[in-house]
Amino acid sequence: MKSESESSLWGGWLTGGDSLLEEVNASVRFDQRLAFQDIDGSVAHAEMLGESGVISAEDAQSIVAGLEKVRAEIGAGTFVFDPALEDVHMNIESRLRDIVGPVAGHLHTGRSRNDQVAVDAKLWVRDAVDRLDALLAATVDLLAERAETHHADVMPGFTHLQCAQPVTIGHHLLAYGEMFLRDRDRLRDTRRRLGESPLGAAALAGTGYPIDPAATARRLGFDSITRNSLDAVSDRDFVLDFLAAGATLAVHASRLGEELVLWSTPQFGFVVLPEDLCAGSSIMPQKRNPDLPELMRAKSGRVFGNLMAVLTVMKGLPLAYSRDMQEDKEALFDSADQLELIVRSTAAMLRGITFVPERTRAAAELGNTVATDLADWLVTERGLPFREAHSVVGGLVKWLGVQGLELRDATAARLADFDARLAGLPAEVLTVDHAVRRRRSPGGTAPELVLAAARELRRRNAAQPARPTTR
Questions:
Q1: What pTM did the predictor assign?
Q2: Residue 433: which residues within 8 A CB-CB, separation 6 or more?
Q3: Nearest to 273 by CA among 351, 352, 342, 359
Q4: Using CB atoms within 10 A of its CB, is residue 159 exposed (0-12), middle (13-18) or buried (19+)?
């Protein structure tokens, strides 16, 4: 039988709380997701205690063996988490005591739950970063592949959602490739900044035991140890970094989702969405609703909300640890789940959509999208200043519009009637193919540049290999 002090979380000084306190205080229903990271941290701490002579080598070995048994039980799904034990850390320690007896009490020597939860959270975020980065790396490769396929297929480029200039489908897709590659950079920065182990900070002031925090840091794959014990236990920048990087990623996926929704309408008809990723209507039998891209778009709000929640929790906290910081976990876990779902959905849509190049080309020919090319011809062939050429073409577009015509409808005679300087204009200047071919400036939409850029994107993506994920 355990004594009352052994059964109580607080070891006998506090006799217990109201059931409301237990309900509000208990976090095990969600922080049990830290279980494997908690065991990793505890194993490293126990081994260090044994090597440093703080506890005997035999006790350290017994604790490690017991922790590995707990790990196996959790992995097998037979471990029962008890809300009365408040959190994942105490649940594991309690089960460890069942397995190895009173020697389990040595595990917490030189350690507090404050540095314990900090290291667990860092390990969890590190794993989440690696999983998300791997998904993003595959998505960037997929964008490069689709861009290569459609490197020369013309589509309208938009500003203000109005037809602007022709681009290629591949060029448009590569814009998202650049966005997602920057997202990978942000995630890798997040990972780099969480590379300091907080174990050894204890509650807030360090510990008087002769511990070796550098040894636990090495065992857990950290680059170094924290330099200030107060900062170590009160820091949640790594959570905010992850949530902020995730929010930017969610913006990018949302923008793509919005375009897929628009492009799949009969009015655009640029893409056909994969049937297995669409939903029907309960009343309209003809509908193929773009539910997945809509959710790619909508889930961004949820990710933004989680970032704002944690920012708000942290903004007024004095040093060092406050229980408020428990509120970062649900936001963190939810965003990680949603971001992985968003990226998986993005990849599924990119694999499954079918572009309709004849529709994108026809749309690119609408809206006088070659007007800039005509102005450029007046500059290079007739010597006009660009602003004057701009005015001439603007007047021409207005003049044609009154007649219900666009530049693509203008005959050589009609052009010459409007302005003698337009006489002799080669017909190809008013074609979308000419417009995309001539844009050979770096980063431009000329098909050969798009093809090269797709290959370069794949190379840059591969230069940052995703780390293998184990969880």
A1: 0.92
A2: 154
A3: 352
A4: exposed
* Integer Cα distance of 425 and 381 in angstroms: 9
DSSP state of 101: G
Same domain, 128 and 193: yes
Which residue, of 356, 390, 420, is where some domain finishes? 356
Looking at the structure, tell me whether residues 306 and 197 fall in a common domain: yes
Catalytic annotation present for 151: no
Range of the domain at 403: 365-459
Q: Are residues 328 and 370 in the same domain?
A: no
Same domain for 228 and 134: yes
Examine residue 8 and state whether it is found in any structural domain, yes or no: no
Alpha-carbon dihedral angle through residues 71, 75, 80, 84, given to the nearest 10 degrees: 60
- What DSSP designation does 279 have? B
CATH label of the domain that carries residue 328: 1.20.200.10
Q: What is the pLDDT along the chain (471 residues), one digit of tens a residue?
A: 344 334 455 555 555 556 777 777 778 888 999 999 999 999 999 999 999 999 999 999 999 999 999 999 999 999 999 988 889 999 999 999 999 999 999 999 999 999 999 999 999 999 999 999 999 999 999 999 999 999 999 999 999 999 999 999 999 999 999 999 999 999 999 999 999 999 999 999 999 999 999 999 999 999 999 999 999 999 999 999 999 999 999 999 999 999 999 999 999 999 999 989 888 888 988 888 999 999 999 999 999 999 999 999 999 999 999 999 999 999 999 999 999 999 999 999 999 999 999 999 999 999 999 999 999 999 999 999 999 999 999 999 999 999 999 999 999 999 999 999 999 999 999 999 999 999 999 999 999 999 999 999 999 999 999 998 777
Rounded CA separation 184/156 (Å): 28
- Residue 106 annotated in active site: no
- Indicate if the alpha-carbon torsion angle 401, 403, 405, 410 is positive or negative: negative
Based on the fold, state whether residues 420 and 298 are members of the same structural domain: no
In this structure, are 193 and 312 located in the same domain?
Answer: yes
What letter represents residue 75's amino acid? G
- Domain co-membership, 337 together with 442: no
Catalytic residue among 19, 160, 282, 441: 160
- Active-site entry in 5, 56, 224, 281: 281
Shared domain for 248 and 331, answered yes or no, is yes
Please state the domain count of the chain: 3
Residue by residue, DSSP assigns 32-76 as GGGHHHHHHHHHHHHHHHHHHTSS-HHHHHHHHHHHHHHHHHHHH
